[in-house]
Amino acid sequence: MMIAPVSDPLSAAEATLLAAPESEYMSAEQLAFFHQRLCAERDALLQSAHETTQHLHEFERTPDPSDRASLEEDHSLELRVRDRERKHLHTIDEALKRIADGSYGWCEFSGEPIGIARLLARPTATLSLEAQELHEQRRRMRGR
Predict the structure, then answer these.
(1) 28-142 has which CATH code?
(2) pLDDT profile of the chain (144 residues), mean per 10
């Protein structure tokens, strides 16, 4: 019996974006697609933050110190995750601003296209893959 590899199938919209000619790079349709994707991601993060706030407001009284410590650790972990998400919200907002000002999809370092495949994987990317690799090499050399 042959088992097919599990892969994340592309949506029809993603496949269309990848198949588009270079001349259509960052067309109105492509910008609208990424705007919608970023807004959906932003909305999901805001919903998650709202649920966390509600969860933290639910006071769970527990007399057992072990249970209380476990609960506090859970809350601490949840807050760390939400802090990372808060930072990601900022990068989403920055990406939405770049869509509005026409600089979305273009590398901040080289001015070259970032590429549809990279933007599908990371819609908040500001550097092309080559510029990102160079940036990471420089950071490793500085020990940061």
Answers:
(1) 1.20.120.910
(2) 49 89 94 96 88 69 73 75 85 97 95 96 95 90 77
Measure the CA–CA gap between 10 and 7, rounded to whole angstroms.
9
Contacts of 79 (CB under 8 A, 6+ apart): 52, 56
| pLDDT tens sequence across 92-119 | 999 999 999 999 999 999 999 999 999 9
| C-alpha distances out from residue 122 to 17, 19, 36, 79, Å | 14, 18, 14, 24
Taking the C-alpha atoms of residue 106 and residue 28, their distance in angstroms, rounded to an integer, is 15
The residue written with tokens 């527990």 in the block is 62
The pTM of the full predicted model, rounded to 2 decimals, is 0.76
Give the Cα separation of 125 and 57 in Å (integer). Answer: 35
Q: Are 78 and 55 in contact (CB under 8 A)?
A: yes
Pick from 123, 124, 97, 127: nearest CA to 113:
127
Distance CA 13, CA 33 (A): 8
Structural domain spans, the chain: 28-142
Half-sphere exposure of 105 toward its Cβ, with a 13 Å CA cutoff? Answer: 22
